[in-house]
C-alpha cells in the first residue's frame, strides 16, 4: 500500500485520509479483503500514521484441526521522522504494506482455537469430539507406570 505524501511534506495538506481494501496481503486472509482506514499527518517533522485495520483470517484450530475464521480489528499508530527515516520515505511516498503485514501477523493467536471450549480430537481414534463421542477408554495408563498406580491404591 504505497501512499504519496508529497502534499504533506510540502505543507499543502494537513492530513491524508485513507480508506481502502487490500487483497492477498496474507495467505491466511485468502480472498477476504483487508479493510484499512485512517489518517496520515505531519507534526513537527514527524509523519504520524494512525490506522484501523479489519481482516478475517482463516486459521486451523490447534485442538480439532478444523478451519475457522478469526476476525481481527487492529488500531495501528506509527511515527516516521522525515529527517532521519529517508530510507523508508522514498520519492515522497511511503509503503505501509510491511507495517500492515507485521502487525496482523503479530496479533494472530499463538494457539488458535475455534472456540474456547473446543474438545479437540480423541488421542486414541482421532474422532473430532466436538461432533461425535467415541467409545475409547478415557484412562489409558502406560504399562511401565502401572506400579505407581498401585502405590496410590495402597496395595503395596
From TrEMBL:
Please indicate which superkingdom the organism of origin belongs to: Bacteria
InterPro entries per the record? YceD
Q: Mind telling me what this protein is named?
A: DUF177 domain-containing protein
